[in-house]
Design goal:
Helix content: 25-40%
Distance between the termini: 41 Å
Number of domains: 2
Strand content: 25-35%
Radius of gyration: 25 Å
Number of helices: 14
Number of strands: 19
């Protein structure tokens, strides 16, 4: 009897120890502008000297799970142009909002300093690009992250994927296309209610795969095409347009791929972009340049195979630290500008904004690592069509419900951990890597209990609830 009692005590202590090792402090609140009382989107919330962190959503809200071992460390809440808020993790009050006050440096300081510094937007950006080998990671690393992939029309969500991912990068000086790897570790949600009747996608698929260049969607009849063939074409287009390889290895990863001569921020950057110094702000007690991105004399061309991705002008902002010239954040839009691209974008997408990108970086051990990525783009579909008149001659008059026909996708990636340990990196690389974010995987409830994710906005949460009522999670 005594032996059994001792055994129960040992088991109980084991579970207490086990649970405490995985116990966490939940930090949640809302970040608000002290002057305007408006929510602050994309504020950084992180534990100092770690890579544990998240960002606030469009409502200013956030949730962050902090392991107990960091309970006595400093929580930092910061946003460019504001004074930072700091608190001990375990002392943070999640019942009240966090108010940040504006903090702006003087632009006049640029001409008062004794040292020779670049004084124009173009010169500051070129200096930042020159310093990238010093400011970006110079050795291999792993990053753990959370991906949310959304696709919707103007009425409702049609597709939602949430995944835990791992990204391997061998370092800034190496070529991203050859030295960057992506793996989907776990899937939390995967709902797909898209219509399987995209003749435009099927046309593009046949043009590429069967080399039928003169084929037009209007010459195809839905009732003659197998649904399985349409699904295959849609999956092909998903990977082509929204695969993570395209985002992380391609031209839109502006900083990582700036060493590529043909990169958007490559050696001919000033032909397609101009940069205008706007002001000097403060970010977490550091001065930071705010620089406007403007169009250059040449159009921006993404050179995407099989897609006319030329004829854009660039707009947005780039934020560069005053002292190190490290790039902190880029807000980057590509707008249809050439007559051909304007016509294409209007007809296919009903918008002139073709690419909306946010790249945010955070310093860790003296290097700038990707922290948050937001990418939005319209998508080629052909749904909601209804013939309103009988055929006239050869052509058939068709009208479309714009709210149903025009889709766009949003991808958000929050990186939650940086791993520099060479043994852990080698072990990860020895495993099989699967970058397909669209493949079905089993759901592991226990895994997600301790994993940091992005908090949905109130609007998105309602849309997701509406979506889940009409769909079901993939079975375990």
């Amino acid at each position: 009897m005594k032996t059994k009692s001792i055994l129960y005590v040992v088991i109980a202590l084991f579970f207490v120890s086990y649970n405490s090792s995985f116990s966490q402090v939940e930090v949640k609140s809302k970040v608000v502008d002290f002057g305007t009382m408006m929510p602050i989107e994309s504020a950084s919330i992180y534990v100092k000297n770690t890579t544990i962190g998240t960002v606030s959503n469009s409502d200013g809200k956030f949730v962050l799970l902090v392991p107990n071992e960091f309970a006595n460390d400093t929580l930092v809440i910061s946003s460019i142009g504001y004074k930072s808020f700091k608190s001990v993790v375990k002392e943070f009050d999640s019942t009240i909002d966090v108010f940040l006050e504006e903090d702006v440096a003087s632009l006049d300081e640029i001409v008062l300093v004794a040292e020779t510094r670049p004084k124009t937007g173009n010169d500051i950006v070129l200096k930042a690009l020159e310093r990238l080998p010093r400011n970006m990671p110079d050795s291999s690393y792993l990053q753990k992250g959370f991906l949310r992939h959304k696709e919707r029309n103007k009425k409702e969500f049609k597709w939602l994927i949430e995944s835990a991912i791992t990204v391997y990068d061998s370092g800034f000086v190496s070529n991203a296309a050859e030295n960057l790897k992506i793996n989907v570790d776990q899937v939390r949600k995967s709902y797909d209610l898209r219509d399987v009747d995209s003749l435009l996608t099927y046309t593009a698929y046949l043009q590429q795969k069967a080399n039928i260049r003169n084929l037009k969607a209007r010459n195809l009849r839905r009732d003659t095409i197998r649904t399985s063939s349409l699904v295959k074409a849609i999956k092909w287009n998903d990977t082509r347009v929204n695969g993570l390889e395209n985002l992380l290895e391609g031209k839109l990863n502006l900083v990582r791929n700036s060493s590529d001569p043909k990169g958007l921020f490559g050696e001919h950057i000033l032909d397609t972009h101009q940069f205008e110094l706007d002001t000097v702000l403060v970010d977490n007690d550091q001065k930071i340049y705010k620089i406007k991105i403007k169009e250059g004399k040449d159009y921006v061309n993404l050179r995407t195979r099989g897609i006319f991705n030329d004829g854009y002008k660039a707009e947005g902002w780039i934020y560069i630290y005053w002292d190190t010239y490290a790039i902190k954040k880029i807000e980057y839009n590509l707008i249809a500008s050439s007559p051909e691209q304007k016509s294409r974008s209007k007809a296919l997408f009903d918008t002139q904004l073709n690419h909306k990108l946010v790249l945010n970086y955070r310093e860790y051990e003296g290097k700038m690592y990707p922290n948050y990525i937001y990418y939005e783009t319209p998508k080629l579909v052909n749904v909601g069509s209804k013939p309103t008149e009988p055929r006239k001659n050869i052509e058939e008059t068709v009208t479309y419900d714009k709210d149903e026909r025009f889709y766009y996708t949003v991808q958000e990636i929050l990186f939650t951990e940086v791993i520099l340990d060479k043994d852990k990196i080698a072990q990860a690389l020895s495993q099989k890597w699967d970058p397909d974010i669209f493949s079905i995987k089993p759901y592991n409830k226990e895994f997600w209990k301790n994993y940091n994710t992005l908090l949905e906005s109130d609007e998105d949460e309602q849309l997701i609830q509406d979506l889940t009522k009409r769909s079901s999670l993939y079975k375990e």
